[in-house]
Amino acid sequence: MGQFGIGQSVRRVEDRRFLTGHGRYLEDMRLEGEAVAVFVRSPHAHAVIRAIDAKAAAAMPGVLGVFTGADLEADRLGGLPVIMTVQGKGGAEQVTPRHPAMPTGRARHVGDPVAVVIAESRERAEEAVDAVMVDYAPLGAVVDPEAALRPGAPQIWPEAPNNLSVHWEIGDARAVEAAFADAAHVTRIELGNNRIVVNAIETRGAIGAYEKGRFTLYTPSQGGHKLREKLTHDVFGIPEADMRVVTPDVGGGFGMKIYLYPEQIVVLWAARRLGRPVRWIGERAEAFLSDAQAREQRSTARLALDSDGRFLALRCDTIANLGAYMSMYGAHIPTMAGHLIMPSVYRLPVLYSEVRCVFTNTVPVDAYRGAGKPETNFIVERLIDTAAREMGLRTEELRRRNFVPPSAMPFTTATKMVVDSGAFGDNLDRLMRTTDWSGFDARRKAAAARGALRGRGIAAYMEDTVQRSDETATLEVDPMGLVTIFVGTQSNGQGHETAYAQILADRLGVGIDQVRLVQGDTDLVSAGNGTGASRSLHAGGGAIVHAAEKIVERGRRIAAHIVEAAAADVSFADGRYTITGTDRSLSFQDVAKAAHTPGKLPRDREPGLKDTAVYQPSNQTFPNGVHLCEVEIDPETGLVSLDRYAVVDDFGVVLNPMIVEGQVHGGVAQGIGQALHEGCLYDNESGQLLTGSLMDYQMPRAADMPSFRIAFNEVPCRTNPLGVKGCGEAGAIVAPSAVINAIVDALAPLGIWHIEMPATPERVWRAIQSARGGAAR
Questions:
Q1: Which of 292, 326, 447, 576 is deepest in the core (most CB within 10 A)?
Q2: Which of 260, 255, 254 is nearest to 219 (CA)?
Q3: CA gap 524, 559 in Å, rounded
Q4: pLDDT value at residue 544
Q5: What is the pLDDT of residues 477-490, one digit of tens each?
Q6: What is the phi/psi pair of residue 577, to 5°?
Q7: Burial of 18 (0-12, 13-18, 19+ CB in 10 A)
């Protein structure tokens, strides 16, 4: 394994570059002769665009052009693509209206880009934007998805009556109803999942260039190959060879930087039109109005149990907000992405769920860390906690009774997912052993003596990671034994440079300082499916493992030729090729040098040591675990303080515990943010965004976080060569459930059995006042 191989807590090699200011982000890039784009955005949530007068703006100093959707339509550009669609009940097709980069007839949300000014500088462009006169005819707007379905609601798309894109279902409705008819107990809840603004540290941006008939797009992304495919096939109608996509360092993605956005299309088109590069860097205010947002669902769910507390069936009805346009993954996120894994770690015989995906006059909604799974986990874990209270059972006991045991693996869920491994009861046991479980009652009494309400919440989860998409990796070894990895995943801060180097330290015996990662350039990396759904270590790592195996085999043949032995008699371990039964050996570096020396190679061998592998995942992986949260609430202010947060996660084989702990910290922090702080709000009448800046939208801060206690229960995955399961999304999936369960546990003595997210001090205080009979006050 070695000092820096798999399982070792190695400091990230890329951090020195970032911490010393040597990272290279889009803002650090400048192309010769570049112009600057600033967009004119609709101030209305819904309006007919009657006319756009850009003459005065176009005549201003430094302005190179003012363009509208009509200019793009004249060049027959395609609209923004939708990658995944779902089929509705009875085989009904999903309604997917065309999404132009800039609309021509109607603006459908505040921030919809209706024109763009290109100028010599940002200052000149901003001045000209104010001179673009747009004649709007405001229309009625609807931002609430439930209201959007009601008769008489403003109609956003003529092809989507009642603003419904698709009414989707999964499961066996008859079997579920039969199970409910036989149930000894039924728990019913209504709950929401609040809308989130992603707020990556680095805002979105794009630089478009066009030279000698070929486009180049520089943009922070989660994978350039997918963007290249969609830009060439769906938008410009050109061969992929005529488009290069370059992604420098990325300051956070979380799903939001997977997608193709209007601005990326416009800067490329404008660069071709003007014959010079065009830059756009989004401001924070634009991020609130144009970045894909997340979550926002409303659900009614029921859980059927027998007299022993065994789960019999689950029934769920959800209304999901899509926003004004169908984003790239769109309806797939609140349907397939979330509900396929809804049974989670539990033996749930049958399930039936319906989701209505609805258009509204809001920013489009798409995948964000967890991508549909935090929403369904919240439904299930709140149902279980509520059922336990209603039946007089301890919440941990009800979960334990319904865990799928390890002896049942591989296990097929009610949604036909085949789970290969897991020890869910062991996760809970470890959590209870390491958190002074039995001391909680004393802590609660001590809090009461201080006038505080203390509560404890647990929540279990299971997610499915890794889309079943292949990944390609090429390894190239130079004469000194330095290895360059070319791979189609894209680091957004996850530590790929270190993790991939550790794989090669383990498989080739090289030092991690002898490995270089090349990513983010479609001209240098042959193919790739990017980063998302915690796929990189499984898919990208799997490809690197197979490429390393090929390199080892090539090296074996070279070593055998040098020592005049049969290749079958040469073994490889710890970075050395050894003739079986002797002490004669060659280092990996010796063989690499020989591979570039024609005189030391067999006659049929070309010089060099390079190979490529494509890895196709055979199945998803299933990270799982249990999280615990303890809170104290000040009943006079409603302020919730997190006192303890503990985690036991099963990520399979943990490649680098330090990196994984960092991923858990970040995910939990984002989940806590949704549970306690973050809420994106629109005005119901005007459709205006009420939380359009960091003055109005509360992000979690370091002072809001407790110390996290993290442990791993490593149950190796059986379906990939590394045994890994993925760790990037887990914290964001389960933390909201654990936090709200803890808050409800603290408030339960007052008769409060649910609090909506975000559980702000005002919301908690009002619930306490209402429970105490103070609603009138």
A1: 326
A2: 260
A3: 30
A4: 96
A5: 999 999 999 999 99
A6: -95, 125
A7: middle
28: which DSSP letter?
G
State how far Cα 358 lies from the chain centre: 22
Report the relative pairing of strands 311-323 and 297-305 from DSSP bridges: antiparallel
Location of structure tokens 């880009």: 113
For residue 58, give both structure tokens.
Answer: 């176009």
754-758 own/partner pairs: CB under 8 Å, 24+ apart:
754/189, 754/191, 754/382, 754/386, 756/191, 756/192, 756/194, 757/192, 757/193, 757/194, 757/674, 757/675, 757/676, 757/679, 758/194, 758/674, 758/675, 758/676, 758/677, 758/678, 758/679, 758/698
Is 775's pLDDT higher than 80?
A: no
Residue 330's contacts (CB-CB under 8 Å, 6 or more residues apart) are 82, 84, 85, 96, 165, 322, 357, 364, 365, 366
Residues 6+ apart with CB under 8 A from 500: 485, 487, 515, 517, 540, 541, 544
The residue among 213, 239, 274, 243 whose CA lies nearest residue 37 is: 274
Alpha helices in 521-575 (DSSP H): 541-563
Q: Identify the pLDDT of residue 168.
A: 98
- The burial class, CB within 10 Å (0-12 / 13-18 / 19+), for 173 is middle
Span 399-415, pLDDT tens digits: 999 999 999 999 999 99
Name residue, tokens 């049942």.
Answer: 408
pLDDT tens for each residue of 269-321: 999 999 999 999 999 999 999 999 999 999 999 999 999 999 999 999 999 99
Helix (H, G, I), strand (E, B) or coil at 338: helix
Q: Would you call the peptide bond into 617 cis, given omega within 30 degrees of 0 as the criterion? A: no
The span from the CA of 224 to the CA of 241, in Å, is 13
Strand ranges inside 619-658, DSSP E = 624-633, 640-650
SS3 576: strand
Contacts of 649 (CB under 8 A, 6+ apart): 427, 623, 624, 625, 664, 710, 711, 712, 713, 727, 730
Half-sphere exposure for 480 (CA within 13 Å, toward CB)? 6
The whole-angstrom separation of Cα 180 and Cα 612 is: 54
Q: Is 269 helix (H, G, I), strand (E, B) or coil?
A: helix
**CA distance linking residue 465 with residue 480, whole number of Å:** 37
Q: What is the 3-state secondary structure (H, E, C) of 188-234?
A: EEEEEECCECCCCCCCCEEEEEEECCEEEEECCCCCHHHHHHHHHHH
Backbone angles phi, psi at 749, to 5 degrees: -60, -20
Q: In 551-588, which positions are buried (b, 16+ CB within 10 angstroms) versus exposed (e)? A: bbebbbbbbbbbbebeeeebebeebbbbbeeeeebbeb
Which strands form 515-518's sheet, in the order they lie side by side? 515-518, 483-487, 471-477, 609-615
Annotate 51-117 with DSSP letters as a single string.
EEE-HHHHTSTTEEEEEEHHHHHHTT----------B-GGGPBPP-----SS-SSEE-STT-EEEEE
- What angle do helix axes 761-771 and 730-747 make, rounded to 10 degrees? 30
